[in-house]
């Protein structure tokens, strides 16, 4: 482990798992609601609970626990090497809603929509 | 954000380590090293004990500065290097930092950048450069990470290298990935980098680590269901592990889905709404499959045993009906949508549809292609008014993939070019190139999805390529937008399909060749005691050509109306009191003049199969009495050639003593063909030579297939009769090789004809002999047979044509030459067969006709009754793929030869005709004007320079040309057709007499190609059509594409 503080680890593996549409961090719905996304605090999910639904998705594919993002090839390949350690998904299937994309833009946060195959 | 700084810090520390390590090294080396690490920024610091106390050098500051810069870039994304703010200005950036040391560093470095454009005084000069490189490096990595339009090229920069950690596959449940994350947090000394769990790989996870030992350590204590088998993922496959197709779950309202399980399995449903936040459940609307009676029983508690296996038919729920059955119906209003539903039990209905909440996992959402009927049901029943089916409204929104094929007619349905028609030129992945029917417009490119429809004219014949009536050919009745209304060719039913699901087809086939135990071309007895031949098999019915002589009477017959099938047998008296048997060649003298093989004889009625007939699958029904056996003992006024043959006393009458005596003589191969119906069926043959060499066995498992392979034998034996095999295209296909083939083989033909009289099994063997490229298990045996039989046949034959000349013996032998020619035919035969399984009855050229029948009168398929010379030069077109090197010269018509007369004199003559037995009819005189005689011992006159010549072997056999030079044994020939100049062996061409017109009126095989699984043949009829067959051997019915190119 690097010196980084890890994101919350999902407390369950069930259906309530959701992935952040921007950084692909995977946590439970409740976790997002309580503490937001560690990588995307500007979404302020912990403050606005409606945001959780908008910013996260239950439709994602694959799971990767990144213990050491800076030194993990997989994290680099998935372009999550700059995020905090934690559980991520390999791919989300939806794009961030447009208003939130605008938000990212305003905050100068880069956002890359998922590639549709 | 704090973590990002942490991370920077981390990196810095490690970089410092390097810096110190390298302090002593020379500058160039250092830079090199730096650059090489551009991307692999975690290449260092693998070990843990490398962190040393920092020595604060200037370089350190620069490093940090670079990092801050990158960090900054990352946040601001588009700032360029020269435009630095203090990170302090950016609140989000700095707030959370509790490491004051770092804070200080960042500030100072940022300040430095802002305030002093010139280098810090005590800085070494190289550091500046170093700085720049580092800046560049970090700027780039930030860029890479967050580039919105990350291209594949950039992604390639991340491809794993040997220095990266490795991926290890280990049998653990996927959830272990999360557990290991927790474990890694609790125990930071775990050396694993990441753990991947894939959805489709339930019981395995990948662990990324440098050493397998770390993986073991990490998995210690985990519940391990599987043997602790840790597999290293090869570097090349590492990216595959992480490449997942993002499941684009596009469950928009009104999209079509199909149920995966339960009563409604495979039923079409429409998404109504997503039910829960999580998106794991959706509400869909379905056409209910509810047995109201059963429901009523259940609700009333009556226990009536029900057959669970019977799934009720889909039918809209009629609430009134339900009420009448005392089923309690509640009326409820949905609180969200304020739609009202009728609730029965726990089911909700609206407008007769069942609204059902299902898990997303239980429906399939991809590639849903609702059929027309399904859509109609949904549309008409449900939405009532707006059921304009063809309008392409939301109903058709999901119908995305339209399959266009080159050459298809399309119509533009959107945009400026709307209603323009055109033909598809090219189809790429997403776009179609269309050549519009307009002079001013060249090829226009369209996106494949929405702007084009297939276009058909009413009356077009199409084949339905998907849906319930798949495979049937139908005629377009009318067209409404994307929907075509079709009339089935056979059952005359009307049906609707999407234009997408139809392809134009010139075939009138159903794609079926058998139903029940009856097959195409079977002779069957119907329940009203009629009988007939199945000429077409449709989805639900047969077309039967009834055995009513005189006029073709076709009945549409259901399976149950067929009583039984009649095997081929039977004899009948024919004209001139001949006995007629199946497979005999007959000519119908009353009615149309057909010369064809008898396929069936039943109750005095003959079914003749003529592949050149388009109608009724080539079958003609006639009274046995009105048929004349061709080549029969009693003569045949129509065929002088046959008459010629017949008068040859070579074949002893004793051999012909049987009732069929006449046949073998004229149609040496035909009977073989007939027998062959069972001779090679199921046999496994391997083409082992020639251009069709394939490395595997072709199992010929049906009659047609075996026919095809028999065909070469027939021709190989120099027999002239296409006989029954008119089912296949074979004749036509074989044409090119006939003449050349004939010469060497004619002698051989006699042998089987004789042997056959006593040993019905022998002919195929001879066939095999003559077909040296097919291995067959009786090969050895038949060689013996052949050799035994031959002399006897000679003995029995008349002495008029002494067979003892070396030449004729040579011809009898299965020379490689003839083998080669025959060989060329084989794969084509295959194709034909498959084509045939589609009952591909094409009008053909004389090529398929017995060469004995010189007149086109017998060839219904030839336009205009192409007159041919008796020499039928048309038959001499050689397959261009014929063996090139091994065959000897083949006698061809029009070649000037020396004829050796009995007294050793030779006279000059011109071959007029190559007869079936290998002898030639020769007109004496250098121009062929003198008397004709039949001779066997002939010598080709060697042409002189600038003589007109004809090539007698090789790939251009049959072609005419001019000898423009002689070089030793080689002749330099300019070929007429192609104007190519060829160098040919001297024996390969003969002088052509000028007075004989050469017709090339035959079917050419332009190219054949056998690859692993398919045979494609490109054929061209000179006068008719070109055909391309692509027959996949495995799924032959489905996969044959036949294009008719006018």
Plain-language structure description:
The complex is a heterodimer of chains A (117) and B (1046). With 117 residues, chain A is of the alpha+beta class. Chain A has one domain: Herpes Virus-1 (2-Layer Sandwich), CATH 3.30.40. Chain A has 4 helices and 5 strands, in the order E-E-H-H-E-E-H-E-H. Chain A has helices at 29-35, 49-55, 73-77, 98-106; strands at 17-20, 26-28, 56-57, 60-66, 86-92. In chain A, helix 1 (29-35) packs across helix 2 (49-55). The mean pLDDT of chain A is 84. Chain B folds into 8 domains: 2-156, no CATH class; 166-242, 2-Layer Sandwich (Alpha-Beta Plaits); 256-364, no CATH class; 398-499, SH3 type barrels, CATH 2.30.30.30; 514-602, SH3 type barrels (Roll); 658-865, no CATH class; 873-990, SH3 type barrels (Roll), CATH 2.30.30.140; 1006-1045. Chain B is extended, with a radius of gyration of 41 Å. In chain B, helix 2 (27-36) runs parallel beside helix 6. Chain B has 1046 residues and is of the alpha+beta class. In chain B, the strands form 12 sheets. Chain B has an 8-stranded antiparallel sheet, with no helix packed on it. A 5-stranded antiparallel sheet of chain B has the order 16-15-14-13-17, with no helix packed on it. Classes of the chains: A alpha+beta (117), B alpha+beta (1046). Chains A and B meet through strand 4, helix 3 and strand 5 of A and helix 1, helix 3, helix 6, helix 8 and strand 2 of B.
């Amino acid at each position: 482990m690097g010196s980084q503080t890890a994101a919350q680890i999902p407390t369950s593996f069930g259906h309530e798992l959701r992935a952040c549409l921007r950084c692909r961090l995977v946590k439970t719905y409740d976790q997002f609601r309580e503490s937001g996304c560690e990588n995307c605090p500007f979404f302020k999910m912990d403050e606005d609970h409606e945001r959780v639904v908008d910013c996260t998705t239950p439709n994602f594919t694959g799971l990767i626990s990144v213990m050491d993002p800076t030194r993990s090839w997989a994290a680099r390949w998935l372009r999550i090497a700059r995020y905090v350690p934690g559980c991520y998904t390999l791919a989300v299937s939806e794009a961030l809603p447009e208003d939130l994309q605008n938000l990212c833009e305003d905050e100068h946060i880069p956002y890359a929509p998922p590639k549709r195959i | 954000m704090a973590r990002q700084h942490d991370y920077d810090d981390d990196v810095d520390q490690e970089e410092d380590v390097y810096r110190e390590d390298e302090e002593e090294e020379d500058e160039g080396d250092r830079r090199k090293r730096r650059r090489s690490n551009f991307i692999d920024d975690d290449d260092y610091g693998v070990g843990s004990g490398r962190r040393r106390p920092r020595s604060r050098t200037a370089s350190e500051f620069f490093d940090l500065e670079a990092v801050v810069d990158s960090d900054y870039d990352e946040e601001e994304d588009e700032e360029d290097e020269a435009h630095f703010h203090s990170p302090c200005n950016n609140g989000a950036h700095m707030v959370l930092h509790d490491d004051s040391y770092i804070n200080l560093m960042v500030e100072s470095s940022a300040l430095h950048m802002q305030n002093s454009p010139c280098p810090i005084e005590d800085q070494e000069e190289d550091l500046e450069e170093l700085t720049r490189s580092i800046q560049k490096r970090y700027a780039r990595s930030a860029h890479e990470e967050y580039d919105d339009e990350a291209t594949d090229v950039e992604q390639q920069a991340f491809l794993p290298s040997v220095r990266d950690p490795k991926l290890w596959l280990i049998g653990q449940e996927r959830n272990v990935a999360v557990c290991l994350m927790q474990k890694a947090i609790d125990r930071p000394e775990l050396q694993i980098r990441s753990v991947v769990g894939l959805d489709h790989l339930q019981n395995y996870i990948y662990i990324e680590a440098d050493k397998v030992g770390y993986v073991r350590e990490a998995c210690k204590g985990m519940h391990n269901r599987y043997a602790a088998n840790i597999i290293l993922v090869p570097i090349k496959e590492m990216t595959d592990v992480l490449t997942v197709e993002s499941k684009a779950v596009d469950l928009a309202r009104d999209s079509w889905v199909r149920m995966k399980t339960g009563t409604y399995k495979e039923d079409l449903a429409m998404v109504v709404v997503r039910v829960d936040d999580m998106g794991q459940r959706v509400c869909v609307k379905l056409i209910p499959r509810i047995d109201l009676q059963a429901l009523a029983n259940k609700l009333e508690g009556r226990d009536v045993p029900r057959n669970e296996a019977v799934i009720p038919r889909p039918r809209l729920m009629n609430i009134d009906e339900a009420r009448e059955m005392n089923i309690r119906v509640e009326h409820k209003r949905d609180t969200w949508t304020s739609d009202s539903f009728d609730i029965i039990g726990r089911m909700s209905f609206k407008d007769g549809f069942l609204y059902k909440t299902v898990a997303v996992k239980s429906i399939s959402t991809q590639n849903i292609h609702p059929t027309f009927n399904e859509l109609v049901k949904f549309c008409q029943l449900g939405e009532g008014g707006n059921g304009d089916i063809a309008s392409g409204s939301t109903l058709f929104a999901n119908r995305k993939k339209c399959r266009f094929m080159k050459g298809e007619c399309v119509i533009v349905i959107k945009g400026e070019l709307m209603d323009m028609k055109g033909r598809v030129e090219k189809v790429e992945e997403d776009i179609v190139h269309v050549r519009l029917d307009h002079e001013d417009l060249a090829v226009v490119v369209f996106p494949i999805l929405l702007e084009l429809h297939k276009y058909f004219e009413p009356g077009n014949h199409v084949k339905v390529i998907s849906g319930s009536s798949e495979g049937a050919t139908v005629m377009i009745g009318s067209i409404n937008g994307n929907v075509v209304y079709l009339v089935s060719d056979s059952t005359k039913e009307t049906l609707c399909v999407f234009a997408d699901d139809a392809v134009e087809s010139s075939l009138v086939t159903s794609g079926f060749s058998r139903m029940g135990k009856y097959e195409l071309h079977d002779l069957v007895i119907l329940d009203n005691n009629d009988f007939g031949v199945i000429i077409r098999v449709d989805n639900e019915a047969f077309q039967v050509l009834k055995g009513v002589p005189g006029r073709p009477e076709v009945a549409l017959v259901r399976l149950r109306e067929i009583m039984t099938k009649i095997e081929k047998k039977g004899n009948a008296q024919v004209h001139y009191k001949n006995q007629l048997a199946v497979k005999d060649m007959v000519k119908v003298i009353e009615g149309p003049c057909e010369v064809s093989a008898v396929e069936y004889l039943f109750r005095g009625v003959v079914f003749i199969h003529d592949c050149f007939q388009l109608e009724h699958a080539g079958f003609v029904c006639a009274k046995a009495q009105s048929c004349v056996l061709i080549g029969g003992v009693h003569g045949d006024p129509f065929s002088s050639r046959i008459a010629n043959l017949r008068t040859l006393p070579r074949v002893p009458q004793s051999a012909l003593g049987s009732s069929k005596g006449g046949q073998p003589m004229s149609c040496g191969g035909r009977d073989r063909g007939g027998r062959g119906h069972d001779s090679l069926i199921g046999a496994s043959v391997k083409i082992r030579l020639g251009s069709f060499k394939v490395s595997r066995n072709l199992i010929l498992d049906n009659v047609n297939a075996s026919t095809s392979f028999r065909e070469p034998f027939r021709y190989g034996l120099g027999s002239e009769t296409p006989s029954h095999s008119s089912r296949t295209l074979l004749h036509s296909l074989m044409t090119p090789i006939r003449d050349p083939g004939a010469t060497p083989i004619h002698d051989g033909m006699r042998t089987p004809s004789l042997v056959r009289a006593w040993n019905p099994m022998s002919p195929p063997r001879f066939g095999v002999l003559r077909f040296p490229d097919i291995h067959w298990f009786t090969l050895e045996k038949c060689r013996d047979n052949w050799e035994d039989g031959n002399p006897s046949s000679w003995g029995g034959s008349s002495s008029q044509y002494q067979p003892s000349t070396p030449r004729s013996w040579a011809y009898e032998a299965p020379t490689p030459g003839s083998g080669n020619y025959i060989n060329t035919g084989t794969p084509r035969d295959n194709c034909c067969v498959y084509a045939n399984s589609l009952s591909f009855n094409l009008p053909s050229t004389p090529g398929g006709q017995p060469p004995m029948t010189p007149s086109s009168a017998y060839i219904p398929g030839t336009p205009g009754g192409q007159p041919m010379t008796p020499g039928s030069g048309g038959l001499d077109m050689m397959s261009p793929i014929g063996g090139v090197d091994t065959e000897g010269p083949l006698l061809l018509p029009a070649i000037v030869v020396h004829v050796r007369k009995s007294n050793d004199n030779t006279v000059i003559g011109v071959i007029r005709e190559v007869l079936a037995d290998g002898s030639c009819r020769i007109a004496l005189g250098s121009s062929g004007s003198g008397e004709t005689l039949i001779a066997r011992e002939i010598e080709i006159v060697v042409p002189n320079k600038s003589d007109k010549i004809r090539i007698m072997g090789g790939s251009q056999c049959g072609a005419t040309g001019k000898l423009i030079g002689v070089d030793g044994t080689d002749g330099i020939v300019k070929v007429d057709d192609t104007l190519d100049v060829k160098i040919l062996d001297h024996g390969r061409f003969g002088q052509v007499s000028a007075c004989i017109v050469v017709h090339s009126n035959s079917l050419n095989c332009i190219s054949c190609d056998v690859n692993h699984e398919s045979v494609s043949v490109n054929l061209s009829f000179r006068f008719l059509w070109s055909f391309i067959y692509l027959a996949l051997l495995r799924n032959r019915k489905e996969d044959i594409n036949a294009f008719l190119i006018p």
